Amino acid sequence: MEVTLLKSKIHTVKVTEANVAYNGSITIDADLLDAAGIKKYEQVYINNAVNGSRIMTYVLPGKRGSGEVCMNGGAALHAKVGDTVHILSFINLSPEEADIYQPTLVFTEGENQVKSVEKYEY
């Protein structure tokens, strides 16, 4: 048996572009991806804090240090430039692994720049 847990969360970033003409996905500054441990093409969930939309898509890395968070293709219909979103990835673990696992939380400041990276503790 496995359980699905939060792997990482990029908390409170602003959408910098919404491009419906693109094939699909979300493009995220590579610095944010590295901080969260999210890989190229990894499945993520995007929760829009402005309109309540919740979607699933995959990641493409953006230019390092750019702060870009670009909603592409159909994802662009769920967020406007300036919307605040949270980006979440998940992991499947055994119950034993789950007992000791701590997700990574990435907090941002300014123009979607990494402010801090923390392990979630409760």
Automatic annotation (TrEMBL):
Gene3D superfamilies named among the record's database cross-references: 2.40.40.20
Pathway assignment: Cofactor biosynthesis; (R)-pantothenate biosynthesis; beta-alanine from L-aspartate: step 1/1
Cofactor note: Binds 1 pyruvoyl group covalently per subunit.
Catalytic residues (positions): S25, Y58
Main location as per UniProt: cytoplasm
This protein's record includes keyword Cytoplasm: yes
Chain positions recorded as substrate binding sites: T57, G73, G74, A75
Record PTM: Is synthesized initially as an inactive proenzyme, which is activated by self-cleavage at a specific serine bond to produce a beta-subunit with a hydroxyl group at its C-terminus and an alpha-subunit with a pyruvoyl group at its N-terminus.
Keyword NAD appears in the UniProt entry: no
Record keywords, A-Z: Autocatalytic cleavage, Cytoplasm, Decarboxylase, Lyase, Pantothenate biosynthesis, Pyruvate, Schiff base, Zymogen
CDD domains: Asp_decarbox
Family in the record: Belongs to the PanD family.
Quaternary organization: Heterooctamer of four alpha and four beta subunits.
NCBIfam families assigned: panD (TIGR00223)
Name the record gives this protein: Aspartate 1-decarboxylase
Natural source organism: Sphingobacterium corticis
Lineage: Bacteria, Pseudomonadati, Bacteroidota, Sphingobacteriia, Sphingobacteriales
